[in-house]
Amino acid sequence: MSRTNSDKTSFRNQNTIIIITTIVVDFLIANIQCSSVNYDGDIKLVDGPSEQTGTVLVYRTYGWGKVCDDHWTMKEANVVCRQLGMGHALEVHRRNRFGSSSQANYLMDEVHCTGSEKRLTDCRFNGWGVHDCRINEEAGVKCAQKAVIIDKPLWNPLKLKFTQLELEKMSKIKFKVISQQLNLSHHPQSSIFIPVLIETKNGTKGTVCSDHFHAAEAIVFCHQLNAGRGGRVIAMPIEQTGINTTNPIAILGYCYGNETDLKYCKSYIDYNGISCQSKLAAAVECTNNLPDLSPDRYSLETSAYIQKMSLWLLECALEENCLPDIVYRIIDNNPYNYTWMTRTLMRFSSIIENSGNEVFRPLEDPDNWEWHACHMHYHSMKVFSRYEVVDTEKRLVAVGHKSSFCLEDNLCKSGVAPKFRCSNVVDSKGTQGISPGCRDMYLHDYDCQWVDITDIAPGQYTFQVSFNPDFLVPESNFFNNALTCQMTHLGYTAVLRQCRFIHLNDLF
Q1: Averaged pLDDT score across all residues of the chain
Q2: How far apart are CA 128 and CA 110, in angstroms?
Q3: Is the Cα torsion angle 252, 255, 257, 259 positive or negative in sign?
Q4: Beta bridge mates, 352
Q5: pLDDT per position as a tens digit, 466-502
Q6: C-beta separation of 458 from 347 below 8 A
Q7: Tens-place pLDDT, residues 149-204
Q8: Residue 442: how many CB atoms within 10 A of its CB?
Q9: 42-143 and 164-182+191-287: same fold?
Q10: What's the CATH architecture for 42-143?
Q11: What class does CATH assign to 164-182+191-287?
């Protein structure tokens, strides 16, 4: 059967339609797969000069829409900022302050919030799309801070400045540990430190960068060499290791401490030398005598409560940087009348026991301890503990920290005599530490023994508290240095429950 010209034309047209349809379908599928998922009530800021400033858009059924500025006050702005994880509102804006050119419809009008709502759509409003607004009535806000999204990707837990492809390539290089003991005669008491040396499969020998090699890595290293249960890590000039290279060839880190070989931790190797900020090699003083800190779960769960305090009562806390950055910005803008402002604090007790067989000592030499006149004692560590509140979107919404006011033996087991007491005299630094079998107690009424939750709305959160959080002081075990709890913020009080131990690496 022969085909006519019209048949050929029809056939070509059908093919063209099929090809175009296929392209369109592929395009739509790609967009669906690549676009982020949004839900009714989600909000975002657009057209502003910064991430935390702009016109408010709200999501509803496959599209974004505007919020009308009728009855747009600081209460509504605060709810927006809290929902975004950006603290509280600094400014409320109306009349399309940021010149938004969006052609989207108004989806919310006459929004009335009490200020405690978790989401903007929890507030009272006219109904979706019900409005009497005209052009240039868009609502906007300026929030106090950027949202801190907790991002610890599996492919880069050490947050190294390499691409994923580069890290994957460097992580595939096999190696073995070839360390031997080294006597550093110039070091106090002639301590024996073992430089961390490796050899790759092709015979390249080199050192390990000290930047990410801490106490957890030392546990694995010392066990692997049968030289102890862990130890203190120092940064050593490469020429003292016996290796003739300019830079370390490896970054090793993110150990848990129960690995049998350093090769089971995260490792990244470059035969020609790896980017190492310190340009120093890691070395370890191995020992069998180590402390082991462990916080008390019961005291944490049973001591939590909320207290409102004026800034004039928090002068010492201000001096010691226990409050969030936004408070210091508020003070800069209101240097003469900030004292009447109040903050909402979640207080709790931290009781830490040393269940190891050695004293937990401050990392810093006493000559480097800092005297704080407000509290009348020396601080011996930059950060002894860290307190964090994380919302359901894995955003860090509140952070607190406590310098070691003074490490001392407050309560010891029967038969154990306390050895450490802090001095409150500037000319006498005293001794600081936590003896084996003793507890250091920071009760809920101590200054800075809280986290500032002023800028988060009532709701469900995760609260986590960690001790020796940066692995800087050697311990025998890091699986019990942190607690994570379910936190219920009720507005008038807070409840912590189901607290459990967690490894420092597994914190949000």
Answers
A1: 86
A2: 11
A3: negative
A4: 295, 440
A5: 999 999 999 999 999 999 999 999 989 999 999 999 9
A6: no
A7: 666 778 899 999 999 999 999 999 999 999 975 444 444 444 689 999 999 999 99
A8: 21
A9: yes
A10: Roll (3.10)
A11: alpha beta
